[in-house]
Design goal:
mainly alpha; 21 helices; 433 residues
């Protein structure tokens, strides 16, 4: 069998397994092992021991379980619900009412979950029943939650950026900070659209803000613990006082204290949060491990170098290269979650980025934006199904509701390409890194 046919067979098996619904880690690992067997038979598998140790023996990856535990503790203790409740009182006075709370809530929850799917599911589960009951525009409600959920991998601590940093040997702390300004811009652009849309076309009932100083203080107290948590974790990273892993450990301690004081944390709920964390982390690290096997296989075959030479040989302009990436991630967004998209593509794309002279931190933000678009792109972007699973509406209503948010994200992508400093300014100001 010729090398070209081996490559086609391997990628064909990979796509077939994904489309057949096999779990992502196995869909990645099986073709990798198959390709190693095609290349060198059983002796080619000897390198898997080294890969198993090298891929998991990573200080960078240790931040993932602690950030997930931090989010799970807040969820199981009921603090996340209180945060949304406080926001709904404070933000309801803006045009758009509770629709604005969707975006702000997703942006804030993104800073503790780091996952788009978790953000969309958590905020959507709390918000969507209230929005439907109060007769908000159904498409707009569902679309704002699906699009708002994508903020989960743009704001720190982004699990996608941790994984990207581990594959490209890029500072995770700087990647975190690079996502802050674009994340705030995207949040503001979403909220501006909802405000304008609500002014010109009725999107829902009029909401009232706090009726008294006591209500306002109660709403602020609901949100205050979260501000302390984010300020403590992200502030320590920005000031250069802690690595992302150290900040995550401190965040777990702060989140536990907050859940004891402001939430309803019990031993049973804490154990449930730990159990859930183990399941999520096991799945994520298994995906990463499988991706390292796949990357090892294609590395032995020299596919990365061949792909680099082929792409460079096409002499694509930057705009054409970015358009090709958009098509790639839109297709992948229909099949796998954000972490899977990164581990599948970055090992091959990273050498190409270097050949184009692209800043890896800046490109990390662009990559996250591409993934966000893929996750809400029809026909089967994963966030669309997350929202569809928690309400009684049709999938096409969710899809139509996300279209304006697609256009907004295209606008931000264009701004990031034209003005890279939007992503690079804050990392350049960091202390000690």
């Amino acid at each position: 069998m010729t090398p070209e046919l081996q490559v086609l067979l391997t990628f064909g098996v990979f796509l077939l397994l994904l489309c057949a619904g096999m779990a992502v880690p196995f869909a990645i690992a099986v073709p990798g092992v198959l390709y190693l067997l095609l290349q060198g038979g059983l002796p080619a598998l000897r390198g898997l021991g080294m890969i198993s140790w090298g891929s998991m023996n990573s200080f960078t990856l240790t931040a993932i379980p602690m950030f997930i535990l931090m989010a799970e503790v807040l969820q199981h203790s009921g603090v996340s619900f209180k945060i949304y409740r406080g926001l709904s009182r404070l933000v309801a006075v803006l045009p758009g009412g509770l629709l604005q709370t969707n975006i702000v809530g997703c942006a804030l929850f993104a800073a503790i979950s780091g996952s788009s799917v978790a953000t969309a599911a958590s905020i959507g589960g709390v918000a969507l029943p209230q929005l439907v009951e109060r007769r908000y525009d159904r498409r707009l409600a569902a679309g704002s939650l699906a699009a708002g959920g994508t903020l989960g991998i743009l704001f720190p601590p982004s699990l996608a950026m941790i994984v990207y940093g581990s594959f490209t040997d890029t500072s995770v702390a700087k990647l975190f900070m690079a996502g802050v300004v674009p994340g705030l811009m995207l949040t503001a652009m979403f909220m501006t659209y909802l405000g304008i849309r609500s002014r010109f076309a009725a999107a829902g009932p009029s909401e009232r803000g706090p009726a008294s100083i006591a209500e306002a203080l109660a709403a602020i107290l609901d949100v205050l613990p979260f501000v302390v948590l984010v300020g403590g974790t992200m502030g320590s990273i920005y000031a250069g006082l802690a690595t992302p892993t150290e900040a995550a450990a401190g965040g777990c301690i702060i989140a536990t204290a907050i859940s004891l004081l402001w939430g309803d944390l019990t031993w049973t709920r804490l154990l449930a949060a730990v159990r859930r964390t183990i399941l999520v982390v096991g799945n994520l690290l298994f995906i990463i491990y499988a991706a390292y096997i796949f990357a090892y296989a294609i590395g032995i075959a020299g596919i990365g170098e061949m792909a680099t030479q082929w792409l460079v040989g096409l002499h694509l302009a930057r705009v054409e290269f970015f358009l090709a990436l958009f098509v790639l991630y839109t297709v992948l967004g229909c099949l796998v979650e954000s972490i899977g998209m990164i581990v599948i593509t970055v090992p091959v794309l990273h050498p190409v980025l270097l050949s184009y002279g692209l800043d890896p931190i800046w490109f990390g933000v662009l990559l996250v934006m591409y993934i966000e678009l893929g996750q809400i792109s029809p026909p089967i972007g994963i966030n669309l199904f997350v929202i569809q699973s928690i309400w009684d509406g049709k999938l096409h209503e969710v899809v139509r509701g996300t279209i304006p948010f697609h256009l907004i994200m295209f606008a931000l992508l264009a701004l990031l390409m034209l003005f890279p400093q939007l992503a690079l300014w804050l990392p350049s100001r960091m202390q000690g890194l």
